[in-house]
Write a structure and sequence with these properties.
Blueprint: H1 6-11, H2 31-40, H3 42-52, E1 60-63, H4 71-79, E2 84-87, H5 92-100, E3 108-110, E4 112-115, H6 143-158, H7 179-190
Parallel strand pairs: 1-2, 2-3
Helix pairs in contact: 2-4
């Protein structure tokens, strides 16, 4: 994407910034710890504002790896102008009930697979998933199969949400050690 096209995409609501403020440390429960983490993201938010104006401001936050949630974190995001919050880690019984009943998107949505990539689509050196091979002359050519599997996963995920948009995460702790490998495969998935 050309760098000079980003403001146009943002102004026309074709591209949205997610983040960049952060949730608190997983075990942090104090008010100062909860309030301090999103504030750490203000420098990034100021840069977005200086570069793109109000249309560059994110509307959705996330808590992808905490071991508990508080109303105060949602309150802090609301005071910062956020409209929603995605959670990555919740009690398995709560998650099962929300996914089954399509109630996983209230003010807070729940990520389908924590923040991990879907099974079979981890393109990191730490994973054993096959890359997307798009050379038709290769005996390992697998584009159609990978795309079919990916669409099946997305269709299955979409059944758990009321909205027609889903947040598909493609990362995990310590991933993107070879970012070029990730992005090559993600580009193939998008094409």
């Amino acid at each position: 994407m050309a760098e000079d096209s980003r403001p146009i995409l943002l102004w026309n609501f074709l591209l949205e910034v997610v983040g960049p403020s952060a949730d608190g440390y997983s075990g942090e429960g104090s008010y100062l710890g909860q309030a301090g983490a999103p504030a750490d993201g203000w420098r990034s938010l100021e840069k977005l504002n200086d570069t793109f104006g109000k249309c560059g401001w994110p509307h959705v936050g996330w808590q992808i790896d905490p071991f508990g949630h508080s109303r105060e974190f949602a309150n802090l995001l609301a005071m910062m102008g956020y409209d929603g919050l995605f959670l990555g880690r919740i009690d398995y019984q709560d998650k099962r009930a929300r996914l089954k009943g399509k109630s996983s998107d209230i003010f807070t949505g729940v990520l389908f697979n924590t923040y991990s990539p879907p099974p079979g689509f981890c393109f990191d050196v730490l994973c054993a998933d096959e890359p997307i091979i798009d050379d038709p002359s290769s005996p390992m050519y697998n584009v159609e199969l990978k795309i079919m599997n990916f669409l099946d996963i997305c269709t299955n995920m979409s059944k758990a949400y009321k909205t027609s948009n889903i947040l598909l995460t493609m990362g995990e702790d310590f991933h993107y050690q070879d970012a070029a490998m990730w992005f090559r495969n993600l580009d193939k998935l998008i094409e």
